[in-house]
């Protein structure tokens, strides 16, 4: 039998990290690529979901964090810091716990989902709530890492991208080649940049015959990449991508241009509707931000774009359990059904009788 060893051991030869770095792993990567019958039917294409919510802490951030924490520990770090809209901090806290070092997280006060906050706290994170947004938190984190003995593990740390690019490797390994298109949400812009690295590397190595067109979607109220300038006060219900000045702006533009792709925006309504539809139609429950790629596909279909006959991967980045409050606020307007502990009452309420 084969136990997945975590992505550093599975892909070490392809990662630009010191060869002797011991892996600090929670078994991340190796996530399911699930065919969407719903979206394949709608498009006449072959649409797959890369379900990153199946990672150990429930988001793709674990790919970057196993790499960043492994290298930081190898270099002697005793503490790590990040700014986060919630998933990076949850992941960092878990990997720091595994490594027995101190995690310090800076988050925008009142703007991170409850599940993510619980993760950071449970894993022993020193959680600092900042009166400001993600962009403020990132500025502070950079400053702390510059002036104090603490390693920065945001995706401005290039080791993060080395871990995250393995998502592209897994997709090619599963499909036998790169897809025609990849759609995904974008916030701080590290992930799209990392996927582009991975797809390019596999093409150069001859493990793929091509690279996909990359299309990345922002929330309309937090769409600096679409607008072409920073947004001072980003707003969206999809708090994971509530970012006004992405750190990997230039890298993501290079990924867009190099792949022949584009950035576009979708409204919160579109995002939350796509989240609900994906849960109902395909059995895949993702957090709001993670539905931006699905919302983007639906928007493009409505605008007359065609994916007929094409192989499409949508990266769904985080687990729906991260933010049940937003899900139920938007979709839970159904009256509770409460019955006595009686089979006839249950059958009646279920519509069976
Ligand atoms: N989806 C989810 C669920 C995220 O948490 C993030 C980013 C993104 C998409 C966007 O990825 O930033 O690489 O473009 N979350 C970061 C965090 C900002 O702090 O957890 P990106």
Automatic annotation (TrEMBL):
Residues 24-318 form the Tryptophan synthase beta chain-like PALP domain. Its EC number is 4.2.3.1. Pathway: Amino-acid biosynthesis; L-threonine biosynthesis; L-threonine from L-aspartate: step 5/5. The keyword Lyase applies. It catalyses: O-phospho-L-homoserine + H2O = L-threonine + phosphate. Its cofactor is pyridoxal 5'-phosphate. Keywords: Amino-acid biosynthesis, Lyase, Pyridoxal phosphate, Threonine biosynthesis. Coiled coil: none annotated. The modification N6-(pyridoxal phosphate)lysine is found at residue 61. It is an enzyme of class 4 (lyase). One of its GO terms (molecular function) is threonine synthase activity. Pyridoxal 5'-phosphate binds at residues 87, 187-191, 317. One of its GO terms (biological process) is threonine biosynthetic process. The keyword Lyase applies. NCBIfam families: thrC. Belongs to the threonine synthase family. Catalyzes the gamma-elimination of phosphate from L-phosphohomoserine and the beta-addition of water to produce L-threonine. This is Threonine synthase. It comes from Nocardioides baekrokdamisoli.
């Amino acid at each position: 039998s084969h136990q997945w060893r975590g992505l550093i051991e599975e892909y070490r030869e392809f990662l630009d990290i010191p060869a002797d770095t011991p892996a600090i792993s929670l078994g991340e990567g190796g996530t399911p690529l699930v065919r969407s019958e719903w979206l394949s039917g709608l498009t006449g294409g072959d649409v797959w979901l890369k379900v990153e919510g199946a990672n150990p802490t429930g988001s793709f951030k674990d790919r970057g964090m196993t790499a960043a924490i492994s290298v930081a520990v190898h270099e002697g770090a005793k503490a790590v810091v990040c700014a986060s809209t919630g998933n990076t901090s949850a992941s960092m806290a878990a990997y720091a716990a595994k490594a027995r070092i101190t995690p310090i997280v800076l988050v925008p006060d009142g703007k991170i989902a409850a599940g993510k906050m619980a993760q950071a706290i449970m894993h022993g994170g020193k959680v600092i709530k900042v009166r400001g947004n993600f962009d403020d938190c990132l500025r502070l984190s950079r400053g702390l890492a510059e002036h104090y003995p603490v390693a920065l593990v945001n995706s401005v740390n290039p080791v993060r991208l080395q871990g995250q690019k393995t998502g592209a490797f897994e997709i090619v390994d599963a499909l036998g080649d790169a897809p025609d298109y990849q759609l995904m949400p974008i916030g701080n812009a590290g992930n799209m940049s990392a996927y582009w690295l991975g797809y390019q590397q596999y093409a150069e190595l001859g493990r793929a015959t091509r690279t996909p067109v990359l299309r990345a979607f922002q929330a309309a109220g937090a769409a600096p990449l679409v607008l072409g300038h920073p947004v001072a006060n980003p707003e969206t219900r999809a708090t994971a991508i509530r970012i006004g000045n992405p750190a990997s702006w230039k890298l993501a533009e290079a990924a867009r241009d190099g792949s022949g792709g584009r950035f576009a925006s979708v409204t919160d309504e579109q995002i939350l509707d796509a989240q609900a539809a994906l849960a109902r139609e395909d059995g895949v429950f993702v957090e709001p931000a993670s539905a931006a790629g699905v919302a983007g596909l639906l928007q493009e279909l409505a605008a007359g774009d065609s994916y007929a006959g094409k192989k499409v991967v949508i990266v769904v980045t985080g687990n729906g359990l991260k933010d049940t409050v937003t899900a139920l606020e938007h979709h839970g307007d159904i009256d509770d059904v409460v019955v006595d502990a009686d089979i006839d009452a249950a059958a009646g309420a279920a519509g069976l009788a």
